[in-house]
Structure formats: C-alpha cells, structure tokens
Design goal:
binds thiamine diphosphate; 44% helix; Rossmann fold; binds magnesium ion; alpha/beta
Length: 337
C-alpha cells in the first residue's frame, strides 16, 4: 500500500483553498435547507440521504481532476454533484420535482445527473454503478482521450459481488478508474465491524486485484486532493485503476427517516467536534489566508445562493404528466464503418 502522509500538503493557492472551502459550505447549507423543506415544508418526497460530514472527500478529490473527467457515485450524491459544479438551482429544483431540475424532476435526491459536466449520477442500487464506471473508463481508453473516471461508493458496497467482477476487469484491462470507497463506518444501521471480515478495506478492494491503494483521512481536504492527483496521474498514464479508502463519517442517519440510534452519542459528538469545515477554516486562518469576517462573508454568500436556489425551485413548473413517458428508452447509436 502507498502510505500517504497527513503532514504532506500539496501546493494549494489561496484562491483554490477558498473555492474548496466555499464548496464545502455550499454543500452543507444546501442539505441543511433541503432537510427543512423536507421535514417542515413537505416540499420534497422520496429518499433523501445527506452527505454532511463527508464534504472534503468529494470536494478535495473532484478538485484535483480535469474538467472533462467523469464522476459517478451512489445515492448520497448531492455533495459530488455540487463539487462537480452543478448549480444549486438545478439540484434544489430536482429535489422539489421540477422540470428545471438536473434530471427534470424525475430522479430526485438519489439521481442527480449532469452529463455536460461529466457527472454520471446518482445511482440507487448499492454497488450497481461500479461496473458502469468500468464501462465509462473502457470507453475513454478505447477513444484514447485521456479521461479518467472517478467512482465513489460506500463501505457497504464492497460486499457486493459485481463490484469484484468490475475491479478484476478494470485491473486486467488497465482501465483509467479511481475507486474511492467512502468509509463512513456504517451501511444503513450496520457497522463495518459487523459486516466485514477485515476492517482494512484496501485488503478487500485492492490487494486481490493488484491495484495500488491509499488509505487516508478523507476529511483532510488537501490530502484528499493530493492523493487523487497522484491516483489520476497513475490511471491516466495507462497503468490501470487505483483504489483510495477515504475514512470519513456521516453526521446524519442513513437517510432522512433514520434517527441513527445504533451509534453512541459520544462517537457523533467527537466527529462533530472535528467538523471538517471548521477544521479547514482554522487551517486557512492559521495560514493568514482568511479572517473571521471573511469567513462570515463566505457563509453569507452561500446562504444567499441557496435561498436563490430555493426561490428558483419554488417558482419552477413541475414536469407535465406526458413527460413521464419520455426518457425511458434511447435510440441506439450504431457507429458507422
Ligand atoms: C443491491 C442493494 N441492496 C440493498 C440496498 C439497500 N441499501 C440502500 S443503502 C444501503 C447501505 C449502503 O451503505 P454504504 O455502501 O456504506 O453507503 P453509505 O450509505 O454509507 O454512503 C443498503 C443496504 C440497495 N439499495 N441495493
Ligand atoms: Mg457507509
């Protein structure tokens, strides 16, 4: 395993650091307000899984990729979509089931999608998108366009059979994929220690397939970015997939209907005391890059952006009923000789 050092920091400019901090704030605020709309306003239906606490994983890793690289993830997808640059308006409208949503209001929380930005979902079947990532990476390799596909999944997904078939094929064919397992210690209410024969997920996900692996603190934003940069260079050079175990923690229950009673209050309190957004704010303050006033201004600008997104979503029209029959099948594209 490649041992990543927490002390090693990449060369991050102040401008880049502020963009990343603001993205994490935006994701946090987006979900806080969406939760209110769900609980109090009854404006959002269906499943709703929050990313709160895991923000540095998506922001740091996506921040280290090229704009034309592909991103694919599971149903806990708000953070990845916003980190990829999807607008809060398109995301909020999706949650409210409006035609202006990123998936025309047909997908909801679990199925954010933005093909223009290379954001390929939002997938609800645990582990189901991992073979898709291999397909996406195969296409990149076939075209020789140098794009990598970053594929996020949870610790629970590592127990799915097709995931291992895909890992094997990706490694055999040296496909340009970066696998990021977001180890938040729980799969619904089941802790990792009750579901995995070994707690080191690189042993289960990387070792059998000969993939280089990193095991890092995913809540260290700059370490997440640096590690992804190295992984992307490896995958892009034709050397095959890389596996990153990003250790993190989710603040909320599995979904909005889960009070999370299966974990100790002390465990959650400890995680919240080390809130990655506050930690990063303090890092930037210590570097002299940010004052308390500047932090307040950033939070205010994020709050304003989210309120605008809510107003946009509320004012948008729902999709007409006949549109339910659209986007079900696609016209097959058969390449000509
Ligand atoms: C194939 C399949 N089995 C079961 C489920 C039900 N289910 C939804 S989420 C989940 C837990 C997944 O946990 P993990 O992979 O750790 O991701 P996290 O929720 O922690 O992000 C399960 C079992 C499902 N969606 N798909
Ligand atoms: Mg999990």
């Amino acid at each position: 395993m490649v041992q990543a050092q927490t002390e090693v920091k990449p060369n991050v400019t102040r401008a880049q650091a502020l963009i990343w901090l603001r993205q994490m704030m935006l994701i946090r605020r987006f979900e806080e307000r969406a939760e209110m709309l769900y609980q109090k306003g009854n404006k959002i239906g269906g499943f709703f899984h929050q990313y709160s606490g895991q923000e540095p994983v998506a922001v740091g890793s996506i921040g280290a990729l090229r704009d034309d690289d592909y991103v694919i993830t599971a149903y806990r997808d708000h953070g990845h979509a916003l980190a990829r640059g999807m607008s809060a308006k398109a995301g909020m409208a999706e949650l409210l089931g409006k035609a202006s949503g990123c998936s025309k209001g047909k997908g909801g929380s679990m199925h954010f999608f933005d093909a223009e930005k290379g954001f390929l979902g939002g997938h609800a079947i645990v582990g189901g998108h991992i073979p898709l990532a291999a397909g996406v990476a195969f296409a990149s390799k076939y075209r020789g366009d140098g794009r990598v596909c970053i594929c996020y999944f949870g610790d629970g997904a590592i127990n799915q059979g097709p995931v291992h078939e895909a890992f094997n094929m990706a490694a055999m064919w040296k496909l340009p994929v970066i696998y990021v397992v977001e180890n938040n210690l729980y799969a619904m209410g089941t802790s990792l220690s009750r579901s995995s024969s070994v707690l080191d997920l690189t042993i289960r996900g990387a070792t059998p397939y000969g993939m280089p692996a990193y095991q890092i603190n995913g809540n260290d934003l700059e370490l997440m970015a640096e590690t992804t940069r190295e992984a992307a260079a490896h995958a892009r050079s034709g050397e095959g997939p890389v596996f990153i175990e990003a250790q993190t923690y989710r603040y909320k229950g599995h979904s909005i209907s889960d009070p999370g009673k299966y974990r100790h209050k002390e465990e959650l309190d400890e995680a919240i005391r080390n809130d990655p957004i506050i930690v990063y704010q303090n890092v930037l303050k210590d570097r002299g890059w940010l004052s308390d006033e500047a932090i307040d201004d950033l939070w205010q600008s994020v709050k304003d952006e989210i309120e605008e997104a809510i107003a946009f979503a509320e004012e948008s029209e729902p999709l007409p009923l006949d549109a339910l029959y659209e986007d079900i099948t696609t016209t097959p594209h058969i390449p000509q000789e």
